[in-house]
Design brief:
The complex is a heterodimer of chains A (296) and B (86).
Chain A (H helix, E strand, L loop, with lengths): L4 H9 L2 E3 L5 E2 L2 E2 L4 E5 L2 E6 L3 E6 L3 E6 L8 H16 L3 E10 L2 E6 L6 H10 L4 E3 L2 E5 L7 E3 L5 E3 L1 H7 L3 E6 L2 E6 L10 E11 L4 E4 L2 H8 L4 H10 L3 H14 L2 E6 L6 H12 L15 E2 L1
Parallel strand pairs in A: 1-7, 9-16, 16-18
Antiparallel strand pairs in A: 2-3, 4-5, 5-6, 6-7, 8-9, 8-10, 8-11, 11-12, 12-16, 13-15, 14-15, 17-18, 17-19
Helix pairs in contact in A: 2-6, 3-4, 5-7
Chain B lengths: L2 E2 L4 E6 L2 E6 L5 E5 H9 L6 H12 L3 H17 L3 E2 L2
Antiparallel strand pairs in B: 1-5, 2-3, 3-4
């Protein structure tokens, strides 16, 4: 498959080599599980003795400290390192997992533990190919709808999520994360696609998808996740500039809240609701306020 | 004249909503409908009475009806430190 220029750029910048990596910043040792991003450079001291250093044009250098387990490296490379590379190269990473349908991307976001990966795993098993897990990179350079870039396809699922979705477990993710890798049943192998919608996952008594006011979208986007913090760090955004950035995203991306029961026994309801909505088959509601949403 | 304290907030309009953020706290103020209309007319050229008169004409309401809403909203904005003047 031929990659788009954006995909090729990210792939090129993500190439990995091994060598010494700085352990200090201005003479001060970096705390464990900390990162530093300034200009075109990103430095990570990850849990377990991993040091990773990205410089634009030079790829990623990894230094394995004492006790570092190589099998843990993909966790960081596909997470905060990937996100930093995206920021530094003109893209906008967001904390979301996504599937695609009918030529467009539907992404799900929410705090860690909200069930993003679990949901997209289940949707992929129902014929909506996985587009990206955990980090979704947006390309703001073109005209028209924001394009999303296909991302990392290895799912990271808890034992409960594996049981709920029936996904086949692979090796442990490692580090402090009690998850296993899993492969999606269907996978998007094409190029970038327009982002059709971003759904904020929240718990609710019944399944419902409803529109959000712009202020509600901006508050949810201001989530303190490293994707947002890295973007702000690279662009040296103050509070007003970050506000403007969140406003642009809120104006550019259709966003809705997706509330569904969090209980495992009702997981299938939420999946069915999401699938119906994405396929345009959910039941319309009489309320004018919910014309853009739906109830399952 | 009513003026905004421009150095303490930032704002944006998206669709039918004006979103104001206090820079010191990061708190958001969501303004729609009449509140958005009042906020956007505070530009240093109007006092309270001319604000009320303009909105009464636009919304086809009496000065007394609009006046109560305007006074209430202006009080909130003054308490937040967002505006000055009369």
């Amino acid at each position: 498959m031929t990659q788009s220029p954006a995909q090729a750029l990210l792939a090129r910048e993500s190439r990995v080599g091994f060598g010494p990596v700085p352990h200090t910043l201005e003479g001060t040792p970096m705390p464990e599980t900390s990162w530093y991003l300034a200009g075109d450079e990103f430095l990570l001291r990850a849990h377990g003795g991993h040091y990773m250093h990205y410089r634009k044009g030079a790829g990623v250098t990894i230094e394995r400290g004492p006790g570092a387990r190589p099998e843990e490296e993909p966790l960081w490379l596909s997470g905060s390192v990937y996100s930093a590379i995206a920021c530094i190269n003109g893209f906008v990473p967001i904390h979301a997992s996504a599937v695609c349908h009918d030529g467009a991307v539907h992404a799900f976001t929410g705090p860690s533990g909200a069930g993003k990966s679990t949901l997209v795993t289940a949707l992929a098993a129902r014929g909506l190919p996985l587009f990206s897990d955990d980090t979704l990179v947006l390309d703001p350079s073109g005209e028209g709808p924001l394009l999303a870039l296909p991302g990392h396809k290895r799912l990271k699922l808890t034992s409960e999520a594996l049981a709920l979705t029936g996904a086949a477990a692979r090796e442990e993710v490692g580090g402090v994360v009690a998850k296993r890798y899993a492969e999606p049943e269907q996978l998007w192998t094409g190029g970038p696609l327009p982002l059709a919608a971003l759904y904020f996952l929240e718990a609710g008594d019944t399944c419902a998808i409803a529109p959000l006011l712009p202020s509600e979208r901006m508050l949810r986007l201001r989530d303190g996740h490293y994707t947002t913090m890295q973007y702000a760090a690279h662009h040296q955004l103050d509070a007003a500039q970050l506000f403007a950035h969140l406003a642009r995203l809120s104006a550019a991306i259709p966003m809705q809240v997706f509330r569904r029961p969090f209980a495992a026994t009702r997981f299938a309801e939420g999946v069915a609701c999401a699938e119906a909505h994405i396929r345009g088959k959910d039941t319309p509601t009489p309320s004018d306020e919910r014309q853009a949403g739906g109830q399952c | 004249m009513l003026t905004k304290q421009a150095d303490i907030f930032t704002e944006t309009r998206i669709e039918d909503e004006v979103v104001v953020m206090l820079l010191s706290t990061g708190a958001f103020l969501s303004l729609t409908g009449t509140s958005a209309a009042i906020w956007e007319r505070i530009d240093g050229t109007r006092d309270r009475d001319s604000l009320v008169a303009g909105l009464a004409g636009e919304y086809d309401a009496s000065d007394s009806e609009i006046g109560a809403d305007v006074d209430s909203f202006l009080a909130q904005l003054r308490e937040a430190g967002l505006i000055a003047g009369d």
